[in-house]
Amino acid sequence: MTASPAGPPADFDPPRRPDPATLLTVQQHILREQDRLPGAGGEFAWLMSGITLATKMIAARVRRAGLTDLLGAAGNTNVQGEEQQKLDVYANDALLHALSWRDSVGFVASEENERPVAVHHGSPAAKYAVVFDPLDGSSNIDVNVSVGTTFSVLRRPADGRQDVSAWVLQPGRVQVAAGYVLYGSSTMLVYSIGNGVHGFTLDPSVGAYVLSHEGIRMPEQGRYYSVNEAYADEFPGPYRAFLGHVRGGGLGRRYASRYIGSMVADFHRTLLKGGIFLYPPTADSPGGKLRLLYEANPVAFLAEQAGGRATDGARRVLDVEPASVHQRTPLVVGGRTEMDAFERFVGGPAAGDRV
Ligand code: P6P
Predict the structure, then answer these.
(1) CA–CA separation, 326 vs 49, rounded Å?
(2) Among residues 166, 103, 178, 176, which one has the least CA distance to residue 133?
């Protein structure tokens, strides 16, 4: 039937085009974004759906932890020597299970597992390694403070090496994707595949992560600095001098201190509001406390994608060559103004050297 000059045939309506201003789920966003990944194909989106599914399961448990027997210690310690919380164990199992169904995943490495787990290693379909902290800040769970999941996706070695270290021990600058889920007043997933940073809020009424913050940019200067000041006397001198400079109005404005004690929550505020988050070397953690592969690298990737910077006090975090899966690092991450000032105090790479 041909269309009449007046318009489409009378017996059906023209197709409805999706209104980009309405609900856009993270899966739709990833499908749109992954075309920018060379050779991604649909398996990247399928991999990411494993992370979104597992984190929705974790969010459901975190939200009800007080009502079920999921609070408190699991009665054992993890590879870090930290007392495992029951939710740590659940979160780790959820991510390992969901990712094991993704045949594009060759290896996974978790903060809760001493060694990486071979998932579909050896399969020609295996293209990625995923490293994650299933529940960062879990010591805060019992007091209802925000906790988070962090993740980083790495491409299998181009040289065909099959050893796990070649898959997992890669510098942060080569991450294919990175992100976190913050279980806070709302549950929010923030991720990047190298084309900006985008935030999705879990809508419990539909059970989907819905785009709520597209193209997040870290403010050039904020009003908060974030560090555990209880250890200030142990920080290296340049760190102490920098913090005194900030408190003394040296950055041209009054700053407030905010420290939640959950890195994901402290970074999320820094990403949205600007400022600077620091976990310096301390007496107990002379090499820093936070883990390079699955805490500092994802955060540093997102920070740079949003216009901020991240160093370990001496060099760009994303350029650090990992030597072991659970390697720790100092972390200083924030907006351009604060990071320029910090690097002047520690003599780090000058901002002008940035590529
Ligand atoms: P502190 C939580 O245990 C964590 O790994 C990070 O989420 C957080 O930033 C840091 O440790 C807090 O450590 O020594 O200040 O209690």
Answers:
(1) 25
(2) 178
Tell me which residue has its CA closest to atom 2 in ligand 1: 137
Task: Check whether residue 66 and residue 212 sit in a common domain.
Answer: yes
Residues 230 and 262 in one domain: yes
Task: Let me know whether 57 and 186 are in one domain.
Answer: yes
pLDDT band with cut points at 50, 70 and 90 for residue 52:
very high
328: which strand partners?
Answer: 291
Atom of ligand 1 nearest to the CA of 148: 7
CA distance 67 to 36: 43
| Sequence-distant (≥ 6) Cβ neighbours of residue 5 within 8 angstroms | none
* Gap from CA of 261 to ligand 1 centroid (Å): 5
Task: Point out which residues pair with 313 in neighbouring strands.
Answer: none
Query: What is the rounded end-to-end Cα distance, in angstroms, of the chain?
Result: 59
d(CA 267, CA 302): 10
- Domain of residue 59, CATH code: 3.30.540.10
Residue 34 lies in a domain: yes
Three-state secondary structure along 260-319? CCCHHHHHHHHHHHCCEEEECCCCCCCCCCEEHHHHHHHHHHHHHHCCCEEECCCCEHHH
Domain of residue 174, residue span: 21-216
25 lines ligand 1 (CB under 6 A): no
Asked if the structure places residue 198 within a domain, the reply is yes
As for how many domains the chain has, the answer is 2
The pLDDT tens digits of the residues spanning 303-324 come to 999 999 999 999 999 999 999 9
Taking CA atoms only, the protein residue closest to ligand 1 atom 10 is 261
The tens digit of pLDDT for each residue in 127-156 reads 999 999 999 998 788 888 999 999 999 999
CB neighbours of residue 66 within 10 Å: 11
Which atom of ligand 1 approaches the CA of 136 most closely?
A: 7
